[in-house]
Target: TetR family transcriptional regulator
Amino acid sequence: MARPLSEEKRAAILRAATELVATVGTSAATSQIAKRAGIADGTLFTYFPTKDDLLNQLYLSIKSALAEAIMTDYPSRAGVFERTRHCWDRLVNWGAEHPTQHKAMRQLSVSDRISRNTRDAVNLAFQDINTMIRDNLSRDAADDESAAFVGALITAMSDVTLDCIAAHPEKIDLYRESGFQVFWNGVRP
Amino acid sequence: MARPLSEEKRAAILRAATELVATVGTSAATSQIAKRAGIADGTLFTYFPTKDDLLNQLYLSIKSALAEAIMTDYPSRAGVFERTRHCWDRLVNWGAEHPTQHKAMRQLSVSDRISRNTRDAVNLAFQDINTMIRDNLSRDAADDESAAFVGALITAMSDVTLDCIAAHPEKIDLYRESGFQVFWNGVRP
Amino acid sequence: MARPLSEEKRAAILRAATELVATVGTSAATSQIAKRAGIADGTLFTYFPTKDDLLNQLYLSIKSALAEAIMTDYPSRAGVFERTRHCWDRLVNWGAEHPTQHKAMRQLSVSDRISRNTRDAVNLAFQDINTMIRDNLSRDAADDESAAFVGALITAMSDVTLDCIAAHPEKIDLYRESGFQVFWNGVRP
Amino acid sequence: MARPLSEEKRAAILRAATELVATVGTSAATSQIAKRAGIADGTLFTYFPTKDDLLNQLYLSIKSALAEAIMTDYPSRAGVFERTRHCWDRLVNWGAEHPTQHKAMRQLSVSDRISRNTRDAVNLAFQDINTMIRDNLSRDAADDESAAFVGALITAMSDVTLDCIAAHPEKIDLYRESGFQVFWNGVRP
DNA sequence: CATGAATGAGTGTTCATTCAT
DNA sequence: GATGAATGAACACTCATTCAT
Model:
């Protein structure tokens, strides 16, 4: 192998893409992304064959990082409340610590450039969380649609919470708490 | 009426823009919008000086229509529950009846092309609703930010509800009801 | 109509394309063609939706001009020799007078960007000539393939003749005559 | 033989280039040629310093193979007819047996990337054949240009013949014969 | 005021060539 | 010598906007 694909460069591209997608959306130009990543225009395409591939992999990588943040130290044996609380806090903390990734993630999640495949892969990364929701929080444990509804609600409510935290970072504890109250009172079994 | 009058043309442009933004997002080409509105490319720019203007006015007009739908027959003298229920039902019903407008609205609301000014004007259109929220639902009546938080939550939760309804239109009553339960249990005073 | 498509501009584009295709082949850049035609890059595409369209229309227009040059004053009632002679002389004279068009035509005729449709349309323009060949020169009047063989031979031989004339323009009469002798002796009935 | 020696690699590159040039023309990408040759992108350039070099050497090598095919068993002492017939048959048979090489050769012969130098070198490979033409078939034995004219004619006529054979392989004997008749009747002394 | 041709900067992507490994 | 990642100048084509008609 002459020069291995540089993991560093790949990461730089994803980092640059995150920042630009967060700022200007998926219409961020590949040449801008390359420039910000400190590589030549053409190099981007040795790491990601098309812009859509880049966007999809970016979405997957951010979502995976979020899932990992949530599932680390997950208290499997604790009660429903503790486990729900754990997920919520991790989700909100991750968003507050990674506002750029969070913004990019929101832009990508409404984009039609994210494929069915990618969305399926993301669901896989959230499998444990989805299972927990289905078993404990959805109105009807047997109902996939009901679980999806609750899952979408938690995402939407955390997005709102994170927007507020972004606007008033000093009130993070307040918003994290209020958000959880609304969520838990709304969906608790 | 081969050549509609001015106001009709403006409306035709907004209608065409709604459909295209709902379908392909804010990257919809002005020439496509003009074609669908039945006018020449250049004519669009006598009604809206730039594409950003068109997008901003479109957002404002859709949001205003939604606000009007919500506030019509608003039961000012009823109790908090009834008034909240009214708003929620109107919101969800409007979204279910105008899926194209709703989709366009969501695309626009995450776009960076919608200006601070426009967002302020939208808040104005929702002033009555915001006041109701502030006075009845926000944790602290004196706190604007708390009211904004609850307002954003209702929007986010109705978006999720409407997405589910779009996926399973026959379950509209179920989703409208479940969504309201979650919201009301979550935020009731 | 605001400003009608300018026939002059269309002609300028075709002229510029002819010159560049003759020089560098079908890989001539559209931006070079536009520059040589004295228009903006984008304008080219209001006259020809794609580069392939431009190339196909160019081929058709050159071939049509050639067909017209050949068929003008065609002596329908003269004998086979006179008619064959007429076609050959016209073909060679046209090529000698329009060396750029001839070179471009040769480049285009071997290109895979010229569609079946275009080749059919060209055959239509040469219908009379083809008929004459089938009826008088092909070995077997009933055989389309035999006629195509002779038709291809006349083209190939005139190309060679024209190449020689291009190299030694002063010997046009000699080459025109020699070429015809070879052709006529080769294929005469 | 996992890693062929140098000369084999050169041959593999030329073989791959032949196939791709025959298929897609001289715009075949060097990376595609390298891949089909089973070597790395960069390796191609240790054998051929530029793409133009590759194309020129390819043209020369194909033309040389053709010349060799023609001159093998050349009946030097036979009459003009027999010798002419020998050349024609060898030429047509070679083309029918090596359709890919023939197609590549035609693509290359109209390309502006083949240099004056290369064309001169090709003429050298065909020196014996050209001499035969000059001495026996050209209208004026002292005239180089006349010989070149006849040489170009034989090439052009065989190309047409080979195209027809490619379209109807089962009629190879018919076309080889018809083609020769036209040629011989056309140019015989 | 309406029209649509004209503009040219910008887009995602390709590719011959270089050079670090 | 072989490798393939890196380069950046092209490329065909798009599009918001202008302006002659």
Notes: Residues 1-6, 9, 39-43, 46 of chain C lie near DNA strand E (CB under 10 Å from a C1').
